[in-house]
Amino acid sequence: MKLITQIIGLFLLLVLFDIGRYWFVPDVKELQENNPEKTAFMQYRERQWEIEGDEKTISKDWVPLTRISRYVQDAVLISEDDKFWEHDGFDYGAIELAIEKNIEKRRFAFGASTITQQLAKNLYLSPSKNPVRKIKEAILTWRLERSLSKKRILELYLNVVEWGDGIFGIEKAALYYYGKRARSLTARQAARLAAVLPNPRKYTPESASPYVRRKAERIYRIMRKRGVVSFVKPGS
């Protein structure tokens, strides 16, 4: 435990040391009123396709949070960031646990990114893993949490996250996988979509993968337990 505390303390010191040098990160306040046309990750994927000679294009449709199924919102938070409404952008307990697991495995195998951290990476940063990027991510996360409401952060995330090769945002994902709008997704469909978020290019919501099936079922059980799904009907 002492070692973990020292590691976290060292990381925070590095952030403070470099904060002046890396302070010049994008101003996130414009996101209060404006939706991003294209994220850094979308641009990264386009460069990948160009290098590979692939003619794929970004597929996305923006939809406000009020037109996204409550099932989707809850399923994604259960899957990716169960303390979203409580934390300030960083889940310190999850960070400590991830560090312990990485030390045990002797490699970087476990992350602890919140929805806000994932949004910061998607909007502004490259997928590379290095100390400089982590510092920028921390600053951006801090700014996002202080500039935007939690609902706006969740709305942005659900609209920019990748749900398949070139499929960005919940509206396109709902249409692509289930032929319906995001507002009409059932609880089980929402659980399936949430289950693939860690690796949406490896898995699909309707995959026969035991991993997807088990994770989706766990998410659905939690939704039932919390009363998100109050009654069951065919297809719910």
Automatic annotation (TrEMBL):
<dbReference type="GO" id="GO:0016763">
    <property type="term" value="F:pentosyltransferase activity"/>
</dbReference>
<dbReference type="Pfam" id="PF00912">
    <property type="entry name" value="Transgly"/>
</dbReference>
<protein>
    <recommendedName>
        <fullName>Biosynthetic peptidoglycan transglycosylase</fullName>
        <ecNumber>2.4.99.28</ecNumber>
    </recommendedName>
</protein>
<dbReference type="InterPro" id="IPR036950">
    <property type="entry name" value="PBP_transglycosylase"/>
</dbReference>
<keyword id="KW-0961">Cell wall biogenesis/degradation</keyword>
<comment type="function">
    <text>Peptidoglycan polymerase that catalyzes glycan chain elongation from lipid-linked precursors.</text>
</comment>
<dbReference type="GO" id="GO:0071555">
    <property type="term" value="P:cell wall organization"/>
</dbReference>
<keyword id="KW-1133">Transmembrane helix</keyword>
<dbReference type="GO" id="GO:0008360">
    <property type="term" value="P:regulation of cell shape"/>
</dbReference>
<dbReference type="GO" id="GO:0009274">
    <property type="term" value="C:peptidoglycan-based cell wall"/>
</dbReference>
<keyword id="KW-0812">Transmembrane</keyword>
<dbReference type="InterPro" id="IPR001264">
    <property type="entry name" value="Glyco_trans_51"/>
</dbReference>
<keyword id="KW-0997">Cell inner membrane</keyword>
<keyword id="KW-0133">Cell shape</keyword>
<dbReference type="GO" id="GO:0009252">
    <property type="term" value="P:peptidoglycan biosynthetic process"/>
</dbReference>
<dbReference type="InterPro" id="IPR023346">
    <property type="entry name" value="Lysozyme-like_dom_sf"/>
</dbReference>
<keyword id="KW-0472">Membrane</keyword>
<comment type="pathway">
    <text>Cell wall biogenesis; peptidoglycan biosynthesis.</text>
</comment>
<feature type="transmembrane region" description="Helical">
    <location>
        <begin position="7"/>
        <end position="24"/>
    </location>
</feature>
<keyword id="KW-0328">Glycosyltransferase</keyword>
<keyword id="KW-1003">Cell membrane</keyword>
<keyword id="KW-0808">Transferase</keyword>
<dbReference type="GO" id="GO:0005886">
    <property type="term" value="C:plasma membrane"/>
</dbReference>
<dbReference type="InterPro" id="IPR011812">
    <property type="entry name" value="Pep_trsgly"/>
</dbReference>
<dbReference type="GO" id="GO:0008955">
    <property type="term" value="F:peptidoglycan glycosyltransferase activity"/>
</dbReference>
<feature type="domain" description="Glycosyl transferase family 51">
    <location>
        <begin position="57"/>
        <end position="223"/>
    </location>
</feature>
<keyword id="KW-0573">Peptidoglycan synthesis</keyword>
<comment type="similarity">
    <text>Belongs to the glycosyltransferase 51 family.</text>
</comment>
